[in-house]
Amino acid sequence: MTAAKLDSPLARLQALGLTLPPAAAPVANYTPFSRAGNLLFISGQLPVVNGAVAPEHQGKLGAGVSLEAGREAARFAALNVLAQANAAAGDLSKLRAIRLGGYVNSAPDFDSLPQVVNGASDLVANILGDNGKHARFAVGVAQLPLNAAVEVEGLFEILE
């Protein structure tokens, strides 16, 4: 394998022991991604693995869900964001992350929102390398679909 191949996003995924899941189909009246010129908007993704949100990734941070479980949930949600981006662009190496948004299902007094969303940011940066550096927001919300602990959305530039 060439050095470039070893340094590809897919090689980085494999080195982390991860595989890109199939891009999930929408469950309501929206598209999983939308392209405007060279910008790619990815709809919010939940930490769904094998068709379900694991029990440890459900509930509220600061009220039963640990910080580490929240980070892991954000990581799985970001993996699903990358799956959608790959489906849209055809190749992760054609992408540059612009911004990630993290919604954290949290108790009112939970203030470690950025630390939770670091799970998503770290994964995207590790997979995309220099193209994975991005702006970000992390907000606490009262509830998320399927009682998920985290939801992540993304904005990417398609490099052509």
Q: Rounded to an integer, what's the Rg over CA atoms?
A: 15 Å
Q: Total helix count?
A: 4
Q: Identify the overall geometry.
A: globular
Q: Structural class of the helices, strands and pairings? A: alpha/beta
Strand order of the largest sheet: 1-2-9-7-8
CATH topology: 60s Ribosomal Protein L30, Chain: A
Instruction: State the fourth-level CATH superfamily.
Output: RutC-like
Percent of residues in β-strands:
25-35%
Q: Which assembly state applies to the chains in this document? A: single chain
Instruction: Give the C-level CATH assignment.
Output: Alpha Beta
| Distance separating the two termini | 24 Å
Proportion of residues in helical segments: 25-40%
Please count the beta strands (DSSP E, at least 2 residues each).
Answer: 9
Low-confidence stretches: none
SSE pattern, N- to C-terminal: HHEEEEEEHEHEE
Mean pLDDT: 94
CATH architecture descriptor text = 2-Layer Sandwich
**How many separate structural domains?**
1
Largest sheet: 5 strands, mixed
Structural notes for this entry:
This protein is of the alpha/beta class. It has a single domain, classed as 60s Ribosomal Protein L30, Chain: A, CATH 3.30.1330.40. Helix content is 31%, strand content 29%. The chain has 4 helices and 9 strands. A hairpin with a 2-residue loop joins strand 1 and strand 2. Helix 3 runs parallel beside helix 4.
